[in-house]
Amino acid sequence: MPSVSSDWKVEHPPRRSGQRSANGCLQCRKRKVKCDEQKPTCSYCERRKLSCSWFQRPWKFVDVSDKVSEEYDVLSGPSEHQSQQQRNSIELNPIEYVPKRQHRTQGRPQETGGLETPSSSTSSSGSNSSPQDSTSTKPQHHGANSSQKTRIPPSVDAGPTTRSQMLIVALYHYLPTNEPKEHRGEHEHPRLTFLNLFNGAIFRPRAPFLAAAIDSFTLVQASLALGDVRLGFAAIRRYSACLSKFNAALAESNLYSHDDILLCMLVLSILESIRPISQFGGWASHVRGAIKYLEDRGPRPLKTRYQTVLFHHAKQASVLWGIFHQEPIPFSGKDWLRISESAPFINHETRLIDIGTRIPGLLSPSSYLSSPTDMSGYQTYFQDLLATSHDIQKWLADFHRQRDVLLHACDEINFPTYFRLVKRNVLSTASSFRDFNNAWYLSTAWTYLYLLQTTCLSIMHSGLPLHFDVDAASLVASVESTVDNLSKTVPQALSAQSGFSGRLSVNLFLRMITLHYEAQGRYEMVRWCGDIESALYTPDQGHAGAWMANWERVIKLPRISQFGEREQTVSIR
């Protein structure tokens, strides 16, 4: 079983005095000078006003199966031999953590301080009762040298730790604090998040692969919140079990619900964005799987609100996948758009996602060109870029008319968490949103707009003999305004009330605006971005860093002055 080190960090041996560090920043390593490794900006780069960036090492997993099995047992999930009736019961078996100690005292096994959780029992009528209805259990003995589970002291609440209870705790760490209040029932599903406290599909999973995926999500959140590496080990085990069961299920997918299959892929992609388990960038492989699965099934009408939520969540993730891989996605086709237009609900957010499906196909002109010198193809390409930019701007204008977005002074009173995490503040004002849903989709729209407008600028600065219907200076001003608006969303997103989702929203665009500030020579803002990146590593809330770090392949940044004067020509790939 692969695992990580006990503190989930890569350990390095101490360095001798005067020796150059192998862990220094990229600038110091390039110049072969000693780096003091002060993050986010080392002293060498600080003195010379250089951009200080650091090599992001991928997670390294070590097989410690034997060592882990000596320390504790993880008992979770229904066995393969359990009846379908039990798997479909309201509550599945609780997840149990049973520490094992081999110490003996005077020849007798020493009892551990582990938790004893009641298991499901059968009532006198023969029906399966939930774990909450269980009142007693017998300790299980696994051999003479194995410890037995012991009872919780009377002063501690002895309620059973079920999947539902653990998932609720995980969601409260993952979701913004106002989300549970906003979701009142099925009518609130248009908020486009399936990870909510009212979604029975995640609390009562019918398929074994879905139960394992949700367990892994729950355990990863718990390991981050509690700082318990054993939960991280357990998450990896359940993740592996999920993949094994899921591969078998896909071979006979007609036996399972389409919604459960798609939900499993989406849960795994979110899980990988929280803490990469399988490999660096593993979120993309699950999103690609969802794209392929939907594409193979073909466009099918959405019959319920819940199906609409899953479909649009998959579309939104596929837009990011297409952007980072610079590949068109199928959902921009007319047949797929008709599904959105005839869905059980249509709202402001679904319209933005529909516009976003065009963007991956607009980041490269190759599909428009019959040859490298096809100027008419370039002209059509530029016009489509501009038209999609205008659609995003119209969406933003409608958003501001319908939703409240306020600007507050960026001070310690209004944004205390931000000032605790960030060493230097460069913002005079910051955005304040009524709820996280507004912040997420507004940030998404600005990110889309930035990509489109900078691509337009790269064409305008390429020297191609094209007709442009937009003034370069006004386009530059719009780009600067977009980056400024994105920066102002950071203070509220870092607040504890925004949960882990808020940190993911910052990660959506942080590297992008860092590259922009570097291209403009605004090194004070570059250092600020470094502070924000460091803040995303907060141990008690998890790591929301480098899982989306491939912006260098996507963004086309001409170096232009504040007034739009060309300083460097950027060729079109």
Automatic annotation (TrEMBL):
It holds the Pfam family Zn_clus. Keywords: Nucleus. It comes from the Eukaryota. InterPro entries: Osmoadaptation_assoc, Zn2-C6_fun-type_DNA-bd_sf, Zn2Cys6_DnaBD. Residues 1-23, 75-159 are annotated as: Disordered. Residues 24-54 form the Zn(2)-C6 fungal-type domain. GO terms for molecular function: DNA-binding transcription factor activity, RNA polymerase II-specific; zinc ion binding. Residues 79-91 have a biased composition (Polar residues). Residues 117-137 have a biased composition (Low complexity). This is Zn(2)-C6 fungal-type domain-containing protein. It comes from Aureobasidium pullulans.
